[in-house]
Fold:
Amino acid sequence: MKDRVVVITGASEGIGAVLAENISKKGAKVVLVARREEKLNDVAKKCAAETLVVPADVTVRDDLKRVVAKAIERFGHVDVLVNNAGRGISRSVLDLSDEDVDDMVRINVKSVLYGIQAVMPHFVERGEGHIVNVSTMLARVPFAPIRSMYAACKAAVNSLSSSLRVELLQKHPGIHVSVVHPGVVATDFGLNAMHGGPDNRKLPGAQPASEVAEVLAGVIEKPRADVYTRAGAQQVVAAYYSAEDMGAAEKSPPFTR
Structure:
C-alpha cells in the first residue's frame, strides 16, 4: 500500500472518507474527490499521508478527466481508482418517474463509466492499474424493493465491470477490475437518498463503515474480481441463484420478515 496513489470518489463522507483515512495510515497517497471542498478538506486533515483535494462532480465527464490530470500532475501517476460515489433512491418500480431513472443512471452508472474512461488511457500506458467499483448486495439479491432503481444501476455497474475485465484480459493483464458488494452500512446513505428514506445507522445489523473500508483496503492490496464485505453474503447470493425457483425463494426469509 505504501506510496500507492489512490483516487477515491465520494470521499467527503461515509465509506469514501473512512477508506481514505484507512489507507493513508498504511502509506497510500490519496486523491479525495467530491463536490464539497470544505468536507474534503476535513477528511484530508484526518489522513496520515499526503493527500490531494479535487472538488469535482462525478456526473460530468470533463471533471473526472481533470481529476486524473491533477492526480498525475501532483503524484506522477495513479495506481487505483475507487468509484465509490453514488446515491440511493426510495421508490418502488411502479412509482419510478423518468426523472428518477435518469438521475439514478447519471449518478450511479455514468459516473463510474466516466471514471473508468478517464483513467484507462493512463493505465494502458503504464501497463498496470486497478479499478475498484463499489456496488451493493442489492445488485445481486432484491432484499429492498424500495431501492429498485439504485439496485438496477449497481447491477449495470457489475455487468460493465465484468465485461471490462474480460476485455482487458488478453491485451492488458496488468490492469485489474474489482467489484465490492456491501450490505447495509451505518452511514447517512438512507437519509441522503432521493425521496428520503430510513437512517441506515438505525437499521438492525448495519455494518460499520470501518469494516467496509477494511475490506476495500484489502482488495486494493490484493486485487480480486468480486468481493462481499460481510461473512456469508456470497453464500446467500449463490443459494438464491441456484434455487430451482427463485420466485419461491423470494417468499421465504430473508426476503420476508
Notes: The domain at 5-249 is CATH 3.40.50.720 (Rossmann fold). The beta strands are 5-9, 29-34, 51-55, 80-83, 129-134, 175-181, 226-228.
